[in-house]
Backbone:
């Protein structure tokens, strides 16, 4: 039986001592690859294991390689874990449910229904936050298909992308071979399908507040899209395309690429500005920022002189940018230096201009490696990172080995106790409101404001220290909204009526 090691994890900080790793969980015989979180700071991971895996007091076993999904609370205590036959490519929490996408082979049974695939069918599933499957939907085709990535748009539609080797059927609707965007509602029912092009694959997808869709694709042959002809290199190339909510192309950029380079990660601001990373194998990472019109705003290099990689890219509620991956010996991230030996880990925070705000680094034991693979950092205060430490790594005197999950706290919430926060009421004026209103709560500590509509969709986020903050929701529909304020890991909420 493989054991789960729970340790206190502190990474080497090269800039600001405020960033501290609260805890870490090391896994033997398993590979957690994906991570997300809910509004209460609970973390969800997905990955694979062989034989068995123990997560806290929960043990999963399989006669062959299998996949798993698990939930832990903010202290790293596991609430549940389940095995799944789905090769999971993406995982997200939205509207108090957990969604996964990927593909599967063979057969499995859930909720009394048998799902069968011969050549590999794409599948999307919805779970409640207690780990119960609510629904499962799959594709069918003569060939193989997969959901590589998905996002949820401002209307509450799930936007999935991937590739299919032949005509793909979903809910009786057919999408031709190649890359695609499949849009469903939150119950998995078909809304629309957008064929992108043959000879390419949808790798990453994001949406903005207006419901526009941004897609990163790779392609392996000459393709023509919206009158643009792109010629692939011998080892494949990449392009980025923006669609409006109706599925009409707004712009498209050929990103190029070859054996030594790869555009791997895409993230988009609420207003539609795009960040994309490019790994260059033996050269620096290139980070590019585009306007919502597809024009290049800036391009900057990050890393060192030997080998650098960016395995994940994302934004927090204030739209600061985070990146993680690996470097050798020494590197720079927006002007901040990190140093170590071979095969080191970095986790960096950048502002909207690409300037470094902080960077953390960790180095492996002799002959090993350590790197960051995926993270979630939604509120900018605390987040979670998945990484790997082959041969072990001493992280500020604490040892990890194999795959690990760690929680980072930036140290921003330190001046208000849970008791004080609960006894401080939230005041909203006016309420009902025509759109502009004032939110008031006592204390000058760091606070995190979130507002959700009646569907549970996040419409507004902001960090603040003041006792009063003005909010403008004038562009949103009339109705009931939930105001949440989080401080010191304590949440308080109140209803708002827009009239």
Residues:
């Amino acid at each position: 039986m493989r054991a789960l090691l729970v340790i206190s994890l502190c990474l080497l900080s090269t800039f600001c001592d405020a960033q501290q790793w609260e805890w870490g969980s090391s896994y033997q015989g398993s590979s957690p690859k994906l991570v997300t979180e809910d509004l209460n700071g609970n973390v969800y991971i997905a990955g694979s294991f062989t034989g068995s895996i123990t997560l806290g007091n929960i043990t999963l076993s399989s006669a062959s390689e299998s996949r798993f999904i698990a939930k832990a609370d903010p202290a790293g205590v596991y609430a549940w874990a389940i095995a799944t036959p789905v090769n999971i490519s993406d995982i997200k929490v939205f509207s108090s449910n957990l969604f996964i996408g990927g593909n599967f082979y063979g057969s499995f049974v859930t909720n009394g229904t048998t799902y069968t695939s011969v050549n590999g069918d794409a599948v999307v599933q919805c779970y409640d936050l207690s780990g119960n499957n609510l629904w499962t939907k799959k594709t069918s085709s003569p060939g193989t298909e997969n959901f590589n990535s998905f996002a949820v748009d401002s209307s509450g539609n799930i936007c999935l992308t991937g590739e299919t080797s032949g005509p793909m059927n979903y809910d009786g609707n057919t999408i031709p071979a190649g890359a695609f965007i499949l849009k469903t509602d939150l119950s998995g029912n078909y809304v629309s399908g957008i064929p992108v092009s043959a000879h390419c694959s949808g790798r990453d997808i994001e949406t903005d507040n207006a419901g526009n869709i941004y897609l990163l694709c790779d392609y392996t042959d000459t393709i023509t899209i919206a009158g643009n002809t792109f010629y692939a290199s011998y080892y494949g190339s990449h392009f980025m395309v923006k669609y409006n909510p109706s599925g009409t192309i707004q712009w498209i950029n050929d990103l190029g690429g070859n054996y030594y380079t790869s555009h791997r990660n895409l993230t988009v601001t609420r207003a539609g500005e795009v960040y994309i990373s490019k790994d260059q194998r033996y050269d620096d990472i290139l980070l590019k920022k585009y306007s919502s019109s597809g024009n290049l705003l800036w391009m900057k290099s990050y890393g060192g002189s030997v080998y650098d990689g960016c395995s994940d890219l994302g934004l927090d509620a204030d739209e600061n940018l985070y990146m993680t991956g690996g470097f050798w010996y020494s590197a720079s991230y927006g002007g901040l230096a990190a140093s170590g030996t071979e095969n080191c880990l970095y986790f960096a925070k950048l502002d909207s201009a690409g300037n470094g705000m902080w960077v953390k680094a960790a180095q492996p034991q002799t002959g090993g490696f350590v790197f960051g693979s995926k993270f979630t950092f939604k509120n900018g205060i605390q987040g979670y990172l998945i990484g790997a430490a082959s041969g072990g790594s001493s992280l500020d005197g604490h040892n990890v080995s194999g795959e690990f999950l760690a929680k980072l706290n930036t140290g921003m919430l330190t001046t208000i106790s849970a008791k004080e926060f609960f006894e401080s009421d939230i005041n909203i004026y006016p309420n009902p409101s025509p759109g502009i209103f004032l939110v008031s709560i006592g204390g000058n500590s760091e606070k995190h404001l979130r507002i959700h509509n009646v569907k549970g969709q996040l419409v507004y986020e902001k960090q603040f220290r003041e006792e009063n903050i003005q909010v403008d929701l004038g562009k949103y529909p009339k109705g009931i909204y939930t105001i949440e304020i989080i401080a010191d890991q304590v949440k308080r909420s109140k209803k708002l009526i827009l009239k």
User: Anything to note?
Assistant: The two ends are 59 Å apart (CA to CA).
